[in-house]
Specification:
The structure is a single chain. The chain is α/β, with parallel strands linked by helices and 377 residues long. It has a domain of 255 residues: 3-Layer(aba) Sandwich (Aminopeptidase). The protein has eleven helices and ten strands. A seven-stranded mixed beta sheet has the order 1-2-4-3-8-10-9, with helices on both faces. It has a three-stranded mixed beta sheet with strand order 5-7-6, with no helix packed on it. Helix 4 packs across helix 10. The relative contact order is 0.14. Bound molecules: zinc ion (ZN).
């Protein structure tokens, strides 16, 4: 074979390769065009979980950063505003999640956390839920329906001073979850109306171990504390369909009453819904349906139920073994605990209309793989 023939072969060979590349490229393009998803297909995507790391807890400042980032990244879904100030002047931030481009009438609901400042996971669960809803909007039909039909108000840190001090109480030494106007300040509800002694000295609680007695400082009068006032005003200004108040660590879900002297008898229809929800949680998650083991005066859920007659619950996340009570508790396995809360939140959200109307909340939420996680003890 001479050089000229060799060049011919080279040209033909290279041209064939070029043609094959172009041709298969076209087929590839056609194929990928065929794979383009319709809007309905988009909504069929399984939901994904926030990419959180164990140990990455959010204090007041990183919580503020996170919710402002949500606002920047999802401006059509997020609204951020302050509902009031703490004793030391920190803002109580509220995030409202909804599809702002959909102006249909919607149900509003309220979820909050960290009313006891040492109960970090209660605030984290609120942030985790917010991120879960935002990253799955417009790809997952369950989440998309929620944000098209509801306004989800979330206050992750009701007690920002307590969160910074890792302290159950606010900066006046008052238990905010005893400062609401329902059977207020009753000794049998384990409360004393001390406030700040001489206007200066904090007395968070009194314990008499030999007598087996303990009392929490609930403030001198209902709504003496700015954080409780802010929550009261938020609820007064909105027609919430349900209220979920998150705490740690008794690992259960509870509904009114916790007070010693209930202001009225719960109606059968209300009891049915409260019981149905608690049983659903007990059957579908690792959390238990157990009542409070003592009387508690002036809690926010009792007050909210008394005032607005909406379904209200205290959701105590995390394990009983972590025992933080007044602060300095163990904070561990963050991602696990976040995953345990998601089924409860999603169950409430898909049933927002049922809850609003005191109808049986029997809609099952579709959850991502790995949720709820296997319990570990
Ligand atoms: Zn608590």
């Amino acid at each position: 074979m001479n050089n000229k023939k060799l060049s011919y072969f080279k040209v033909i060979f290279l041209s064939s390769i070029l043609l094959i590349v172009v041709f298969t490229g076209c087929i590839g393009e056609e194929k990928s065009e065929e794979k383009l998803l319709t809007p309905e297909d988009h909504l069929d995507q399984p939901s994904i979980l926030p990419d959180w790391k164990n140990g990455a807890y959010h204090d007041y400042y990183s919580t503020m950063q996170m919710i402002n980032d949500f606002n920047d990244d999802f401006p059509d879904l997020v609204d951020v505003f302050s509902i009031g100030k703490s004793v030391t002047g920190r803002d109580l931030w509220c995030i409202r999640l909804t599809n702002e481009n959909n102006s249909e009438a919607k149900f509003s609901c309220l979820i909050d956390g960290c009313m006891h400042g040492c109960e970090w996971e209660a605030g984290e669960a609120c942030l985790y839920l917010a991120e879960y809803l935002l990253i799955n909007f417009d790809t997952n039909s369950t989440v998309t329906t929620i944000l098209n039909s509801a306004k989800v108000y979330i206050v992750p840190l009701v007690n920002p001073d307590g969160r910074q001090n890792d302290d159950r109480f606010n900066d006046n030494g008052i238990d905010l979850n005893r400062n609401f106007d329902v059977d207020f300040g009753r000794l049998k509800g384990h409360c004393v109306r001390l406030g700040k002694l001489f206007g200066r000295i904090k007395i968070p609680y009194l314990e008499f171990p030999r007598l087996g007695l303990w009392f929490t400082n609930c403030g001198r009068h209902p709504f003496s504390e700015p954080e409780a006032q802010a929550m009261r005003d938020l609820m007064d200004d909105h027609d919430f369909s349900f209220y979920l108040n998150c705490h740690t660590t008794t690992h259960n879900i509870m509904s009114p009453w916790g007070v010693y002297k209930p202001p009225f008898e719960v109606a059968n229809s209300e009891k049915h819904v409260h019981d149905y929800v608690k049983e659903w949680v007990a059957e579908n998650t690792e959390y238990e349906n157990t009542p409070l083991s003592y009387y508690a005066s002036g809690t926010v859920t009792d007050w909210c139920f008394k005032e607005f007659r909406i379904p209200t619950f205290t959701f105590e996340i995390m394990s009983k073994d972590y025992e933080p009570m007044a602060g300095g508790g163990r904070h561990d396995h963050l991602v696990h605990w976040m995953k345990t809360t998601l089924p409860v939140f999603m169950y409430f959200l898909v049933n927002v209309e049922n809850l609003h109307n005191w109808r049986t909340p029997d809609i099952q939420p579709l959850l991502p793989d790995g949720v709820p996680p296997q319990p570990f003890h």
